[in-house]
Structure formats: structure tokens, C-alpha cells
Amino acid sequence: MSIIKDYSLWEEGLRKILWAKRFMPVLDQIRKDYIDKKPLSGVNVAISVHLEAKTANLALLLKDLGANVYVTGSNPLSTQDDVAAALVHEGVEVFAKRGATEEEYFYHLEKTLENDIELIIDDGGDLTYLLHTELENLSDRIMGGCEETTTGIIRLKALEKEGKLKFPMIAVNDAYCKHLFDNRYGTGQSTWDGIMRTTNITVAGKHVVVAGYGFCGKGIAKRAQGLGARVIVTEVDPVKALEAYMDGFDVMKMEDAAKIGDIFITATGCRDVIRYEHILQMKDGVILANSGHFNVEIDIATLEEKALKKYEARKNIQGYVLENGREVFVIAEGRLVNLAAADGHPIEIMDMSFAIQALSSIYVAQNHEKLERKVYNVPGEIDRFVAGVKLKSLGIEIDRLTFDQEKYLESWEV
């Protein structure tokens, strides 16, 4: 039995789902290719991804391919209750409510997994975590799954390194069509969408500090630059730091950037990137936002403990009065800003990412008996298929190698 906030919201949720579907040609092509084959027939699939309209289209696609689908969220503030209601209306079981407490959130994850789940689609690794801890007894049924995010893959590889990973997982985040487009263009646009619609302030001319220069950080920094900001990058990796410098950005330590920045955005996948010691150095009125998966990149716990006062400065913006009299503002409790304060990545971007999820799920279902308990890269043919369908939907044609060219590229002779 589903656990949602309000079933009566389903009509508005369905409108959102149908709107997104119009802009998801890759998922539509997969549906056409596999609808008669039903490659997931009878497979119980658990999805823990940010529960909004694009995710709903992935869930409905898997249902059309024969799966029994059970959906929960991957962040309490990213669930859209009307979309959850619409999925229930469409015959999918859902366990999620926006604004759930941490206890409720994990209860929803547990209820999702208590359905004889065989295949998981994870975002951040919470399903995987439960299947290796409290619900370890359910892991024997798992044939494998897919992981959407950098954070989740870090957790998976840690399990694999310790020899504790209980089933094969596909690192969807590392597919070219994921990190090149989703992480860079998707995160870049949606992060600023969340910040700008929540704050309604000008970006041009401000000092924007981007912590982390992976693909997500690159996208955020480039969009900030395009909006007229003066961009500072902080990094721990010397290669990425040098790349940021070569891309035209200032690079410095957080302790130095803290004194300069007007807007701070974390995108590292690590914890305590902005610590209280940094916050005390910041100017009055700075804005803090996190674009990493978990709300640990900004040390909110210490800020809550030591601030003299906390108040709601504006909807979804928490104001803190510091002991030095200055104020700082945190968007969406330091949670994933593009989903907790906006609608997430653009539809067309997630069309590609969810296509990789769907095809990788089919791959696991068809090959799980010969897969080891390891983290696997997405098969190259899946990446190329997704890119090819996307190009076709855009009306773009590209060259093909001739027979002689293929032979030349495969030979060591001139």
C-alpha cells in the first residue's frame, strides 16, 4: 500500500508528467523498441531518485517494459507530492512525502525494499546502504542495479574495495552521456535556476565561489560566468585546480575565498567543505547553497548550534545571525539546491540520463548471472545509442567511417 501525502493531487501531477514526456524522445524510442519484448517482465524494481515528473516518466517506462515498479524519493525536499499521487493513479506504488523527517524518509526506503525487490535504481546510495546494513537479509534477492550520482558511486566503490559489495552495480554517473551533459549542463542550469528563483537577486558583478571543479562544478562556474559573475574556484585536486585556472577562473583556498564571496555553492561530494570557521570570515549577507547530493557539504549542524538567531528570511531561505553580528543565508537547509528549491535538471538532459538508467537496468536483468559483485561501467553501446537517438531527435546527421577508414584505424601499418 502506497504512502503519499494527498492522492487528490494526481491530476496536476499527471499534467507535469505529460509535459515532461513531450521532451523525452530517447525514453520514447526505448519504449517503442522494447514495448513488445517486455525485457523486465515480472521483475520487481525499486527506484530511489528525486521524485518529480522526469523520474515519473522513467518509472512508467519500466512499468511498460513489464516491471513491477516501487518508487521512493532520494531527498525529503525534492519529492513533489502531486507527481507521487499521479504515479499511484497510474498503477505504481509510491512511498514518499515532501518534507519527510529523517525517520520517515528511511521508513519510506525500507517500505520500498520490502516488496521482494530484484533490481534497484539508486541516487546517492541509500537503497544500497540499507541492503548492506539494516535490510541485509533482503540483499540475496537483488540481481543488481544502477547508481545515478557521484556520491553514490563513491559509496559503492568503498564497498567494493572492502570486498563487501553484495551485488553488481552499474555506475551510470560515469557514462559519457551522464557526466558530460547531466552533470555539466544539467547541474549548471538547474543550480542557478534554484538560486535565482529563490533569492530573486542579481548575479552579474557578484563574486561567486564554487567549491569543487568536477563536471558539476564546471557547469556551475561556466553558467555563473555567463551571468556576469566574477568566479572563484576552490579545489583539493591540483589537476582540477589548474584546469579551473586555465579556464579563466580565480583559484584559492576556501579560507581566502570566504572573505571575498557573495554567493557560495558547494559541489564536491564531500563533507564540511564550508565550515563554521569559514562562515565567520564571510561578509554580511552572503548566500550559501549546496549542489552536492547530501546536506553535509556546508556544516549546518555547527551553524545551527552557534548562531545567535535563526529565522526564515524568505520562503526556503534560512537566515542566521552570527556571534560577530553578521548574517548569512542558507538556501533550502543546505540540501540539493536544484531540486529542493527548483525543478531539477532540464527535461531533455534527464531524458538522456534516465535512458541510460533504463537500458542499464535491462542489461543487468539480462546478464546478472554472469556479472560479479563489482561496480561496472555503462557498456559503450548504451552511451552511443543514447547519443545517436538524441542527435536524430534534433535533426542532426553525422558522418560514418568508410570501410577503408575503419581498416586504417584498426591497423598498425601506415
Helix fraction by DSSP (H/I, runs of at least 4):
40-55%
Q: Assembly type of the shown chains?
A: single chain
Percentage beta strand: 15-25%
Shape: globular
Low-confidence stretches: none
Judged by helices, strands and strand pairing, the structural class is: alpha/beta
Mean pLDDT across the residues is 96
Number of strands: 15
Specify the number of helices: 17
The N- to C-terminal Cα distance equals 66 Å
The largest pleated sheet is described as: 8 strands, mixed
Q: Tell me the Rg in angstroms.
A: 22 Å
Order of strands, widest sheet: 9-8-7-10-11-14-13-12
Domain S-adenosyl-L-homocysteine hydrolase NAD binding: 183-344
Subcellular location: Cytoplasm
Binding site for substrate: 123, 148, 178, 182
Pathway: Amino-acid biosynthesis; L-homocysteine biosynthesis; L-homocysteine from S-adenosyl-L-homocysteine: step 1/1
Summary keywords:
single chain, 414 residues, alpha/beta, 17 helices, 15 strands, 15% strand, NAD, one-carbon metabolism, Adenosylhomocysteinase
How would you describe the overall organization of this protein?
- This protein is of the alpha/beta class and 414 residues long.
- Helix content is 43%, strand content 15%.
- The chain contains 17 helices and 15 strands.
- An eight-stranded mixed sheet has the order 9-8-7-10-11-14-13-12, with helices on one face. Strands 3-2-1-4-5-6-15 form a seven-stranded parallel sheet, sandwiched between helices.
- Helix 1 packs across helix 3 (53-64) and helix 8 packs antiparallel against helix 15 (347-367).
- The longest helix is centred in the middle third of the chain and has 24 residues, at 176-199.
- The chain is globular.
- The mean pLDDT is 96.
- Its main location: cytoplasm.
- This is Adenosylhomocysteinase.
- Belongs to the adenosylhomocysteinase family.
